[in-house]
Design goal:
The chain is mainly alpha-helical. The chain has 3 helices and 2 strands, in the order ββααα.
């Protein structure tokens, strides 16, 4: 839905035609006015247009940095998603493989070692 929004920025009356909501455009105008007024207070000796350009540069800088950060985060998400998929495949593969039970002969051997005092490492009172 197209909205026509009347806003005032730097004492300039503007009519903005947009798909955004009226509240959103008014919030943007308020924020921009605030930034420009702040810049004018800090740089009152400079022309208004210079302060407006400074604000525009700040917004461009912030936007560019946020886009780069967004790209980096998307790349990290992609790497983590691939790692997650790989781990899932590994788990699924290991669950599909039958568990390897020790052979009867191996089980008997293990039991003999555990029951034989000569092989029991916990037995410190061995007689010679």
């Amino acid at each position: 839905m197209t909205n026509t929004v009347k806003a005032q920025i730097c004492s300039q009356n503007l009519t903005i035609v947009t798909d955004e909501s009226v509240d959103y455009i008014n919030d943007l105008a308020e924020e921009l006015n605030s930034k420009i007024n702040e810049s004018v207070k800090e740089n009152s000796f400079k022309p208004l247009i210079t302060n407006i350009i400074f604000c525009a540069l700040q917004y461009c800088d912030e936007t560019k940095k946020l886009r780069k950060e967004n790209e980096n985060l998307k790349e990290q998400i992609d790497v983590l998603a691939r790692e997650n998929d790989s781990l899932k495949r590994g788990i699924e593969s290991s669950l599909k493989q039958p568990s390897q039970k020790p052979s009867r002969q191996q089980s008997l051997f293990d039991r003999d070692i555990q029951n034989n005092p000569r092989h029991n490492r916990g037995n410190h009172n061995r007689q010679h």
